[in-house]
Design goal:
A 7-stranded mixed β-sheet has the order 9-8-7-10-11-17-14, with helices on both faces. A 4-stranded mixed β-sheet has the order 1-2-4-5. Strands 3-6 form a two-stranded parallel sheet. It is globular, with a radius of gyration of 19 Å. Helix 3 runs antiparallel to helix 4 and helix 3 packs parallel to helix 7. The chain is an alpha/beta fold. The structure holds S-adenosylmethionine. The site of S-adenosylmethionine (SAM) has 19 residues, from helix 5. The site of S-adenosylmethionine has 19 residues, from helix 5.
Length: 325
């Protein structure tokens, strides 16, 4: 089982210190008392990772990297590869650990490039990344100067992926908690920037999600929201049938203009749209590190502007807003 002592120690110097007991209770309820079926297998893969001390790491490059001065032996590289493959599928990245590049399903660096120029500087800020996946963007946030990064995601497999990377990147104040945003201590008002990327459309109740994000922010703090949108204006929202691009858990896909309205209605100010981008089969694709079907299989083979269910193909918007003082 993964332990969180380092996280609690890091909290001692922050406004979250009085909320430690609530984090402990949430982690016990969501993780320690609810281990997922493959937990023992992921734990074994993690335990099989070879002990290697990195001489350097890079959190500011597209590929988050740990490297060593001496090349690894072929045996050690193979041991590393086998252990990491035990945590398949790798969705968010890319990462490079010594001689191995983890070519993930997503070029998550492209998303980072699209938003980087628009957000407030992360230098010395405390940052929350809701729905962080493997934690790729958490490392980029640390690379951009954040003094504390907390990623939350209920996936226990991604928890092990995160720790596999952290093992080699060294002791940074970057933590992954296996929680949902609903599990956060209520109204903690502790973060300077909160990211929610690729999560809103998974929520049955988008306004509850916006409220959770707002309450995690300090007054004056910045929200970075990235989610699926459709073309259109006010009052336009797609609620797909059972599946959208083969995903079963997609609920609300508003137009960007409608989403701006939602942000204002939820009590944010200075809401603005900074990017709209149609996901391509170069950005999301099958690789040797994610061997299942990917975007190309979820689109109409004759028209990549449609999903195979006939809906508009995935279009993603990034919006920025502020919690009022
Ligand atoms: C599409 S992925 C996005 C990953 C990453 N943020 C990105 O933009 O590349 C959505 C992630 O959100 C997580 N998730 C879904 N519902 C959540 C919730 N209520 N709270 C936190 N994470 C959630 C899922 O487990 C999944 O890893």
């Amino acid at each position: 089982m993964i332990h969180f002592n380092e996280f609690y120690a890091a909290l001692q110097h922050t406004a979250l210190a009085p909320r430690s007991a609530e984090f402990k209770a949430a982690i016990a309820a969501r993780y320690e008392q609810r281990l997922q079926g493959d937990h023992a297998r992921w734990q074994q893969a993690f335990d099989d990772l070879p002990a290697i001390t990195a001489s350097d790491c890079s959190l500011t490059t597209d590929t988050v990297t740990a490297c060593s001065e001496q090349p690894l032996s072929a045996n050690t590289t193979e041991q590393l590869r086998q252990a990491l493959i035990g945590l398949h599928p790798w969705r968010k990245g890319p990462f490079r650990l010594f001689d191995l590049t983890i070519d993930t399903e997503w070029r998550s660096d492209w998303k980072w490039r699209r938003l980087q120029a628009h957000i407030a500087s992360l230098d010395k800020r405390k940052v929350l990344d809701v729905g962080c996946g493997s934690g790729y963007h958490c490392w980029r946030m640390r690379g951009a100067g954040a003094s504390l990064v907390v990623g939350i995601d209920p996936s226990q497999k991604f928890l092990f992926q995160f720790h596999a990377i952290k093992k080699y990147l060294g002791p940074h104040p970057v933590f992954y908690l296996p929680l949902r945003s609903e599990d956060l201590p209520v109204d903690c008002q502790a973060f300077d920037t909160v990211f929610s990327m690729g999560v809103l459309y998974h929520r049955r109740s988008p306004f509850d999600h916006l409220e959770e994000l707002k309450r995690a922010l300090k007054p004056g703090g910045e929200l970075v929201l990235e989610t699926l949108v459709i073309e259109g204006g006010r009052n336009q929202v797609l609620v797909p049938g059972e599946r959208y691009a083969q995903m079963r858990n997609v609920w609300y896909i508003p137009s960007a203009e409608e989403l701006l309205h939602w942000l204002r209605r939820a009590g944010f100010e200075h809401a603005r749209l900074v990017d709209v981008n149609q996901t391509t089969t170069e950005e999301q694709r099958t690789t040797e590190w994610m061997r299942f079907h990917s975007l190309t299989n979820f689109l109409d083979p004759h028209d990549h502007n449609r999903t195979i269910e006939g809906y508009p193909a995935p279009l993603r918007a990034t919006l920025i807003a502020r919690r009022p003082h």
